[in-house]
Amino acid sequence: MIESSLSPEMTMMMVKAQNKDPASILDSSTIERIEESAKEFEAIFISEMLSPMFEGLETDSMFGGGKGEEIFRNLMIQEIGNSIANTGQVGIADQVKNELIKIQAAANAGSSEKTGMNFAK
């Protein structure tokens, strides 16, 4: 077992030295929340990258335009971002998840008060 009085850096070095995955010291509910947060981040990131594509589109004045179309266009872009993120082909969520797991493992090892990052709540 890893001693909680060690610094987060020392804890991560010990985890790596023991050939343990940092995720092995986290419970499954924390891992699920981290995965959900990482996927949500990827979807928002993709939506923000797609948003400029739709800015220059002209709308038909007879059946389109106005605040309603503006709102629904934003919703459509969010859903396109969610759909792309759910395919798992971009890979941003995987990288974010790995980093969040490292941060949370270090925080659980004794410094959650210092960093203020604790997904286990």
Structural category is: mainly alpha
Q: How would you state the average pLDDT, rounded?
A: 78
| Low-pLDDT windows of residues | none
State the end-to-end CA separation: 22 Å
Report on the structure:
The protein is 69% helix and 0% strand. Helix 1 packs across helix 4 (92-115), helix 2 (28-55) packs across helix 3 and helix 2 crosses helix 4 (92-115). It has helices at 8-17, 28-55, 66-87, 92-115. The protein has one domain. By secondary structure, the protein is mainly α. The longest helix has 28 residues, at 28-55. The chain is rod-shaped and about 65 Å long. It is built from four helices and no strands.
Describe the secondary-structure layout.
Layout: H1 8-17, H2 28-55, H3 66-87, H4 92-115
